[in-house]
Design brief:
9% strand, 2 domains, 390 residues, 53% helix, alpha/beta, globular, seven-stranded mixed β-sheet, Glycerol-3-phosphate (1)-acyltransferase
Amino acid sequence: MEFDFEEIRCYKNEEVHDALERLSNEKQFMKVLSTIYPLLPKEVIKQRLLSFDTNYAFQRDMVNPFLQYLEANMTTGIKLNGLENIDTSKSYLYISNHRDIILDSAFLCGKFIENKMDTVEIAIGDNLLIFPWIEDLVRVNKSFIVKRGLSSRQILESSKRLSAYIAYTIAEKHESVWIAQREGRAKDSNDITQESLLKMFNMCGKESFIENIMPLNICPLSISYEYDPCDYLKAKELMQRHANPDFKKNPMDDLLNMQTGVMGFKGAVVYQITGDIQTDLKKIAKETSSRNEQITLVAELIDHRIHSNYTIFAVNKIAYDLLRDENRFSKEYTIIEKLDFERYLALQIAKIDIPEKDTDFLMKRLLEMYANPLINKLKTESNYHPEEFE
């Protein structure tokens, strides 16, 4: 079956100049760029935009300098580990946990550029295309569009097309792809791969589930942020959903999350490439021929790779001890670090502006966000005892 990718694909190099010309005539976009590059006159910014004729050149010379600014000013450093676990001449489907709407994939691309590697194509939900010009911007930036809010019939057709596009991008365009392990960010940092995502990958194939996903070269990627600038916004949303199960964010909420995530302090950031799962997929195929069992085992495999490769910071250990009222990790952080983190949490809760604010509820949610990566990592270790986490 042939699919028309025109509506969702990222722009081809020959389309880049026209897209950037359209963007250069968008007052709102140019205002954003003037904020990012305050020392450059608008005419200079416009000339620079119109000088690019490939996606990669735009990312390398326009986007990456801003990412380097963020690394220098909004983090204590960004590390990309695990390049030895991949063949840089091959294309991969990177599946990662999802912390920040924009920066999870952006920082990854920035580090690939610094390592003289090609960037990845990025899956982005159309709910984030808040203004019309954002679609031009993300498609120039090698993003493809994932349709949201569809009817059941539309979801099926959209998923088939998305599945075919990802397979086509990896096998025929020889481009790597980044996608989050679930739709939306895990608000509590309990990162679990959605089986529906794996079912979507399978849709364009004609063989068994394992045979269909093998050509994708799935490579789990673990992302660790020391601090999440959006933690208080996530806690606020959790409280709003607790009070009203039908609560839904509006586009301005997404915009605030994007702005806060980009410009907030993140501490240390670590990306860990864990290598592809091809060998493990062959083992699963031998273990069971049941499609549903294979899907569950692959999801658990991806989770295990992501969880076991988290970088654990002092704040995670402090949150674990505070959440569980224990001193399990007390020798691995100082009293000053604990007091600083408790003060940080209090300041984040103070930012939450909702009526009848339940401070205890919010504190517990924040502690869970920082403790869950450590809890999940502990569960992957050989001396794991399930009763510890009941």
